[in-house]
Design brief:
Shape: globular
Radius of gyration: 18 Å
Helix content: 40-55%
CATH class: Alpha Beta
Bound molecules: zinc ion
Strand order of the largest sheet: 1-2-3-4-5-6-7-10
Mean pLDDT: 97
Structural class: alpha/beta
Distance between the termini: 8 Å
CATH superfamily: Divalent-metal-dependent TIM barrel enzymes
Largest sheet: 8 strands, parallel, barrel
Strand content: 15-25%
CATH topology: TIM Barrel
Order of helices and strands: EHEHHEHEHEHEHHEEEHEHH
CATH architecture: Alpha-Beta Barrel
């Protein structure tokens, strides 16, 4: 299983620092935070970024993310497609295989059928754009009640119905737990459709009140990570795992310490199940 570091874990640091964090801690992969990428490219070239990543022996795995892709109209929807094309072109240049895409909040009155139909329509359209650049799109359900796709089951149904080789999903342990997904839902998923696995833990709070800021290092909270990992192992998933913590308190940690704690807590969580 390859180990990844997600730029949300170190939100206050820039992309160059993220590369250094990943390199120093021993991560194989970096999930690039799109806003940091944009900042970097204001003053630097894509070629120099590629070089930095190569020198650090850190492979870019994804760009995070295009948010709220569904239920957009007119110019707003055009902007999603334009952003998709822009990030795909960068990803291709960087040899970065994936981009994360995120569903929108549920519009008033929308039924589950509406959500499935709209998600499939948009994912197929974005799939066509991404395939021109040989990029995969990973659809990430968010376990918040106001979001249109908040469980693994619904996310996977949409991915299956979309039925495109370059469309898969993100399984994020925080969203899995917050949205009330069950471990049996993992066992129904085709491992090859799990494009990205985000690991993190969460504070002991009512699930419906959990927010991103309540994320914790793996093993320090209440998410049944062992059960989730066993479920993934059972379906034969063995690709990658990336740590994604949106916790402001951690953003204050020195880069080296943040990287080391991230790396050690992932390894600890995997121990006995993966390696
Ligand atoms: Zn995530």
């Amino acid at each position: 299983m390859l180990l990844g570091f997600n730029g949300a874990t170190s939100m206050n640091y820039d992309l160059e620092t993220d590369i250094r964090i990943a390199q120093q801690a021993g991560f194989d992969l970096l999930e690039i935070w799109a806003a940091k990428l944009n900042n970097y490219l204001e003053d630097n070239s894509l070629e120099s970024l590629k070089q930095r990543l190569e020198e650090a022996h850190v492979k870019p795995y994804s760009i995070n993310s295009i948010e709220f892709i569904t239920f957009k109209e007119g110019r707003d929807y055009e902007e999603i497609k334009t952003e998709c094309r822009r990030l795909c072109s960068i990803a291709k240049e960087l040899d970065c295989p994936k981009i994360v895409v995120v569903p929108s909040p549920t519009p008033e009155g929308a039924t589950e059928e509406d959500i499935i139909a709209e998600s499939v329509r948009v994912l197929r359209e974005l799939s066509a754009i991404a395939s021109e650049y040989d990029v995969d799109l990973a659809f990430e359900f968010l376990g918040f009640s106001h979001i249109s796709v908040s469980t693994l089951d619904l996310c996977y149904r949409i991915v299956r119905e979309t039925d495109r080789p370059n469309i898969g999903l993100v399984l994020d342990t925080f969203h899995f737990y917050a949205g009330g997904s069950g471990v049996e839902e993992i066992e129904a998923v085709d491992k090859d459709k799990i494009f990205i696995f985000h690991i993190n833990d969460a504070e002991d709070r009512e699930r419906s009140r959990l927010e991103d800021a309540h994320r914790l290092f793996p093993g320090e909270g209440v998410i049944p990570l062992t059960d989730i990992l066993k479920g993934l192992k059972k379906v034969g998933y063995n690709n990658m795992v990336s740590i994604e913590l949106f916790r402001p308190e951690y953003w204050e940690l020195p880069p080296r310490e943040l990287g080391a704690r991230s790396f050690d807590t992932i390894k600890q969580a995997l121990r006995g199940i993966y390696r």
